[in-house]
Amino acid sequence: MTPVSVIGIGLSPEDLTPAHLERIHRADVLVGGKRHLGYFPNSRAVKKEITKDLPGVIQFIQERTAEESVVVLASGDPLFYGIGARLIQALGPDRVRIHPNISTLAAAFARIKEPWQDARTVSLHGKSDPARLLKALDREDKIFVLTDPVHTPGRVAGLLRDRNIAGFRMCILQQLGAPSEKIEWLTPEAAAGKPFAEPNVLILRRETPGRRTRSGLRLGLSDEAYRHREGLITKAEVRAVTLSKLRLTSPDHVLWDLGAGSGSVSIESALFLKRGRIFAVEKNPDRIADIEANRDRFGIRNLAVVQTVLPDGLDGLPDPDRIFIGGGGKDLDRIIQAAAPRLSPDGVIVVNTVLISNIDRTLETLRKLDFSTEMVQIQVNTAKPMPWGDRLQAQNPVWIITGYRKEENTHL
Fold it and tell me: In CATH terms, are 105-206 and 223-411 the same topology?
């Protein structure tokens, strides 16, 4: 039984060595993609195209290896996101010989004349969840992306635009090695939705290396870390307790931050809601600008800002798993009545208020809506210097009221 030869073509047949070509010409069976098989129109071998039915292709190869020599043509290096690993797993390492060639990764960085030992590779082939790419965008300065006809450079650019991921340029390398080869450097805004010739690969490069999208973000940041005005910000210590009461136990939760002010709670909730969606709802245009500036400052890509006068404007939002209300004033009970029924069955609502009149209103409204409640009062005192020591200066006391469905009490 002759082992199956898996030969990487490189960028084109010009990259094949005489030894590669001899194996291909002597093959009884030639397996490869339509483009690869088209390079050898005069081959007398039986040809089998690789389709989406990869198990069927592997079974075909297994049936032919007993009496015939089989050569599988692969792009670039067969072991770089290629068919090589799948064949080794299916046939066994003793029945497969790998003949590597230039990978698309090496070729792409050679074209732009940059080293690639520090690049992170992400494959989008057949992937419906962009989580791995988003994680790389948080942490890496240079990312090589293997695209496919669905997950195109234009779609990746749209993802960056829609998630407010700034600071990257895109290099789209189309039909590498072909006479029609084309290389473009574009901004995500320019590339979003634009068609590109197949096949293509993508390089994402941070314009300011070392500057991460969530630079400096942590729980309980000082108030000075945020742009805000007139003291309209949930203070750091209260913010930390509020986030603990919200019980952000799933990274996929949807959070409404109603009366968001500066957006500080929304922004720090992103530390927990890695894949979730956050909606900061605010009526004041100046505060909207503050939220957007703070969002961009920390690179929070899953935070949407909504301008509306509550309780209006909630109908178009997806149902929440968690609700935080940090504002509301005289309309607080109406806002709770509009928002709380939209909560998921195990949802949690947290209300912060400094108004004594709002305490009973909030508790009464939540209980009428069949929520169990708990309440804590936070009184923060901060040290202020005096000539012979420090004194404590009191901040306004804040009541933090938590509501949850009665049947979910024991689970929270």
Answer: no
Name the β-bridge partners of 389.
Answer: 386
Give me the pLDDT at residue 410, please.
43
10 Å CB burial of residue 31 (0-12, 13-18, 19+) is buried
Cis peptide before 93 (omega within 30 of 0): no
Q: Which CATH number fits domain 4-102: 3.40.50.1100, 3.30.1540.10, 3.30.450.20, 3.40.1010.10?
A: 3.40.1010.10
pLDDT tens per residue, range 8-35: 999 889 999 999 999 999 999 999 999 9
CATH superfamily placement of domain 105-206: Tetrapyrrole methylase, C-terminal domain (3.30.950.10)
The class that CATH gives domain 223-411 is alpha beta
Check residue 374 and give its pLDDT.
96
User: What's the pTM?
Assistant: 0.56
C-alpha to C-alpha distance for 228 and 286, rounded to whole angstroms: 9
Q: List, as one string, the DSSP characters of 32-57.
A: E-HHHHTT-TT--SEEEE--S-HHHH
Residue 411 has pLDDT above 50, yes or no: no
* 286 vs 216: CA distance, rounded Å: 24
Q: Residue written as tokens 């149902």? A: 319
Mean pLDDT of the 373-381 span = 94
